[in-house]
Design a protein that fits this description.
Length: 179
Amino acid sequence: MASGVSRVILRCEDAMENQLLDLSECELMQVPDAVYHLMRHTELKSCDLSGNVITKIPPKFAVKFSLISALNLSHNQMSKLPDEIADLGSLQRLDISHNTFISLPSAIFKAPKLELLNASDNHIADVDVEEIKEAPSLIALDLRNNPLTVRCHDQIAQITEIQVDLTPRQREDWEDLNI
């Protein structure tokens, strides 16, 4: 356990130098309070929390790390994000792939500078296509390897304003019936 704590502290010290906080693969269940304390005088540009067992990000995360432009939350156990994620005014890249999302948090699409969203390999069945279209800066959205409904898949495939990556839809047996 102590090695995990010292690893987090060392990585926070690195981040004070390069503004890139890498807490990936630290067996974290949440962002430790100590991290907020250690990073209070650092203007973080990037935060990597991938490969942990984090189930949620608290609202204060967005307040404390309001200047980050890249956030990697992949390979965790998250199913939702706080609404405050919309307050990350510099966020350009967000990776929530390989989690347990069943829907895309609508707050994501309110982040003013978000350009790239990777939501692949989740459990997302339905997506609000209008929210995607109204996202102010979104350029690319990755929704591969999600169990999207047929209707949702077809609607998303119609989007032309941004690049959307989808897993090719398998035709259902009943769709081939020539009646």
